[in-house]
Fold this protein.
Amino acid sequence: MNALCKTLTLTVNGEVRGFERPLTVLGLVDRLGLDTRKVAVELNREIVPRSTYGAVALQSGDVLEIVHFIGGG
Amino acid sequence: MDGILQLDDSWHVAGRSFASRLVVGTGKYRDLPTTAAAIEASGAEMVTVAVRRVNLSDPKAPMLQDFVPPSRYTYLPNTAGCFTADDAVRTLRLAREAGGWNLVKLEVLGPAPTLYPDMPATFEAAAALIKDGFEVMVYCSDDPIAAKRLEDMGCVAIMPLGAPIGSGLGVQNPLMIQMIIENAKVPVLVDAGVGTAYDAAFAMELGCDAVLVNSAIALADDPVLMARAMKAGVEAGRLAFRAGRIPRRGSASPSSPMTGLIR
């Protein structure tokens, strides 16, 4: 039970994953090995401004999209 | 001397000025180094890009931005893969956050095999994006009425297709493209359908402000060489348009004087 409480279940880019809490958007991007300057994050369908990554705490059940630019026409 | 080439012949969209009249896509290349080399050779200053989920299983994979730096090229994020106004707005909001700009390419396509612009959905998405503060360059059908309506709504550039995306068939409906150009006060770009340098030159000779090319460069046997060819084609077409071509006529007219002939 204790271990469960320490786990945060997030859906990131359609994948359900467990993370240790507490976790902010900044922490998540970092944990995923991504460069904050090259991605954009949507949390529960709302854009998270890059300047606020460190202040936005994630909750179990949150749904995130993390995107970047790729080749396109 | 070569005054015509030295004159400032830049074009403007959304308060930005571009010397190159070739806009290139960054899709379909075999790899990122080739993308970078071809875009460099094209002389383009504006490039279209797509917005997609980061691959979480390979976060260190090379990214487009490392090869085509946004500090050097104006990124024009597109809405490829969006089929509704909501999808388009959502995607471009993310693009704005990722890149920090609001100049975007709206494209809402119908299904294969035509991938023809879905105009009712395009109007709806354009309205939503403009309301949200975006500056919208819009991919559309070669329909002068639709083009005018998009301009009146506040789109900053009109981008009719020359032919279906990736078809390489060139401008199939030059009369309609010309009518769109004549009626527009915002830049008109032929977007889609260019197959080779000739097609780009032809589009520019019609009076387009710029041409957007992706597949014809990316899928050429030698993309870097084709990028140079497109650059030359766009420049040739632009110069020819400015120079004013001779009228077409139905009979021959001798190039050498018919007087002073020896007898």
Observations:
- The longest helix of chain A spans residues 25-31.
- The radius of gyration of chain A is 13 Å.
- The longest strand of chain A covers residues 63-71.
- Chain A has a mean pLDDT of 90.
